[in-house]
Amino acid sequence: MFRIKKLDIFIAKQFALLFVGTFFICQFVLMMQFLWRYVDQLIGKGLSMEVLAQFFWYMGLMLVPQALPLAILLSSLITFGNLGESSELTAIKAAGISLMQAFRPLIFITVCIMLGSFYFQNNIGPHANRSLGQLLLSMKQKSPELEIPEGIFYDGIQGTNIYVQKKDTKTGMLYGMMIYRMTDSFEDAAIILADSGMIQSTAEKKHLLLTLYNGEWFENMKSQELAGSASVPYRRESFTHKQILLDFDADFNMTDAGVLANDARGKSLLEISHDIDSINAQYDSVGRGFYEDVKRAFFASGSISKSDSLRAKKMAGTKTFNIDTVYNRMSAKDKKEAVSHALRRVQQQVNDLEFKSLVTSDADRLIRLHKIWAIDKFTLSLSCLIFFFIGAPLGAIIRKGGLGIPVIISVLVFIVYYIFDNTGYRMSRGGMWSIWFGKGIATAVLAPLAVFFTYKANNDSVVFNMDLYRTFFMRLLGLRLKRHVYAKEVIIQDPDYTEDARVLQQVSDDATEYAHAHKLYSLPNPIKVFFKYEPDDKIEHISNTMESVIEDLSNTRDKAILTELSRYPVVSAKAHTRPFEHKWMNIVAAIIVPVGIFLYARMWMFRLRLLKDLRTIKQTNASIINRINEIIHI
Fold first, then answer.
1. H helix runs in 204-256, sequence order
2. pLDDT at residue 462 in the model
3. What pLDDT shows up at residue 359?
């Protein structure tokens, strides 16, 4: 029977307090990052506090599902980091409570948060996305004098296109201006060129005052065209200073949300499913219509009329005709005309197919976006549970609380998640990857990490012991490990000098015999190495004997012996004999030629190193034996 224990309440309280704090921190960071993207649409627009409050409110609601996984990761990591740093986690384990039992209350809380995140994304998030998109669209259309970009035409003012080569954001001056004003048609267009100018809103926010300097005005006068006249009068005006009043309502007005109808982020799962069916039905009918058009056009244009067929047969001189034969009997003028006509028809068909391809590809992209955001509701919710099983075990392993190491680790994990998720989204949106693969790749990458860290933490395994990894890679790459022997402050038992000297002399004799018998300076036989290996434990015995003597002599007070002990090399007992312990692995390494060559060369390097180490051992043994003899005879 499940019972709530005091320990569960204690851990849940620790987590809850940290979760609330980290959630608001993560929410603030994400909001600042989002705000930075749209800061140009907010500054200088004269937006009211009510509009700004709505913007921040909907922005905060939209970012809640993204802040929850990061907050869970950070708070769980700090919670168990604090418990480990204060030795409370050790006391919990000493009481017979496993780490998974300590995780139990937080797993329940995380599952509740995960379900709440899914509900939020499916019911509250779509409304927030729609409202925020409507606000951003409305803000973009307010005070367009600040929105005019450099180097392209701006059409945000109805009936007017403005081109600016350069603008000064500090003074508001625009340079190299070209303005097109249209009334009824392009034939009525007025073209205005000016060296510089400025656009300002009037006090009542109903018009834009366009002030121009040093320019010319060209305008067609079609409205004054005389009936029956073949010419269109126009006027040209040069000016040094001119002001033009343009109609524009600069007050903040909410844009019609109908333009956001195809945005899948503003829809629930039920709405997405319904709209996908509608889009499929709509574009299926369009596709069938395209197919019927192409079929009719093919048969209509591809069929040859009876008169053309009789004419072709007459030219060929037979009852049946060959197109190449008919073409070869045509005159040069007819050939040129036939080829031109065929090229025009082909190009027309190509253009028609390209247009239809754009229509259908747009439908495919729209359907993919709907499916992507539907799957995103599940993956983003599931990431809450995955981030917990990454953060909590890491906290138990690292045993560091506070906002130092936990923040660094959380940021690194979130960056990895963001890179994979964003890459998958872009590749899925473009159709390069399947939707399930693209949106599931981030979860597929982090889920094994969560299982690995949980397993290691539950078994008290060492994961972040840098000395262990350093030693492993140094051995793998064949790098030398140095020995350091220091004088002990407290010595319980003095070394047995006589026995140690005898053992060292035996080690020297064994080393001399081994080096002479195995000819370490020569290349080893590859057949014996990879296929017919015979056990060789002599060096391992020499190394173990030497280490036992070093351990005993490290209790000495003599500085000369301690110095000589540090000269002993760390011997690799088996690296010179074979690449791997298991015979089948050696056979596989030999079959994979590049790997076998590398391992063979590495083994020969270790043979040469062993020969050098044996010489060093014999020299060091001789020095220590001489020093022991001096100590004994004093």
1. none
2. 61
3. 65
Tell me how far apart the alpha carbons of residues 474 and 457 are, in angstroms, rounded to a whole number: 26
pLDDT per position as a tens digit, 465-484: 556 666 666 666 656 677 87
* Structure-derived torsion over alpha carbons of residues 324, 326, 328, 331, reported in degrees to the nearest 10: -150
Query: Rounded CA gap, 131 and 135, in Å?
Result: 6
pLDDT at 387: 93
CA angle 424, 430, 433 (to 5 degrees): 50
Nearest to 571 by CA among 483, 466, 446: 483
pLDDT digits (tens, 9 = 90+) for 224-260: 444 444 455 667 788 888 888 877 655 555 555 555 6
How many whole angstroms separate alpha carbon 281 and alpha carbon 530? 65
Model confidence pLDDT, tens digit, residues 195-218:
998 887 776 666 778 889 988 887
Q: Are 389 and 70 in contact (CB under 8 A)?
A: no
Distance of CA 236 to the CA centre of its chain: 57
- Locate tokens 């729209």: which residue? 366
Distance CA 196, CA 176 (A): 6
C-alpha dihedral sign at 422, 425, 431, 436: positive
Angle between helices 125-140 and 49-85 (to 10 degrees): 130
**pLDDT average, residue stretch 434-460:** 88
CA angle 449, 454, 460 (to 5 degrees): 125
Give the chain's end-to-end CA distance (angstroms, integer).
Answer: 76
Ramachandran region, residue 214 (left: φ > 0; alpha: ψ -120 to 50; beta: rest): left
pLDDT for 311 beyond 60? no
Q: What percent of the chain has pLDDT over 70?
A: 76
Phi-psi region of 242 (alpha: psi -120 to 50; beta: other; left: phi over 0): beta
What's the DSSP call for residue 485?
-
Burial 398-427, CB ≥16 within 10 A → b, else e: bbbbeeebbeebbeebbeebeebbeebbeb
What is the Cα–Cα distance from 79 to 127, expressed in whole angstroms?
A: 34
Give the pair of three-digit tokens for residue 394.
């890491």
Most distant CA atoms of the chain, gap in Å:
136
- The per-residue pLDDT for range 279-308, each reduced to its tens digit, is 778 777 767 776 776 666 655 555 454 555
CA distances to 183, 192, 226, 228, 326 from 231, rounded to whole Å, are 20, 22, 9, 9, 50
Closest CA to 54 of 165, 122, 123, 134: 134
Taking residues 251-273, report their average pLDDT: 72
**Cβ-based neighbour number of residue 121 at 10 Å:** 24
Count the neighbouring beta carbons within 10 Å of the beta carbon of residue 381.
22
**What radius of gyration, in Å, describes the C-alpha atoms of the chain?**
41
Count how many residues are written for the chain.
634
Contact at 8 Å (CB) between 89 and 399?
Answer: yes
Q: Confidence band (pLDDT; 50, 70, 90) for 554?
A: confident
| Average pLDDT of the residues in 79-95 | 85
Q: Which of 80, 187, 78, 100 is nearest to 405 (CA)?
A: 78
CA distances 579 to 127, 429, 524, 536, Å, are 63, 48, 12, 13
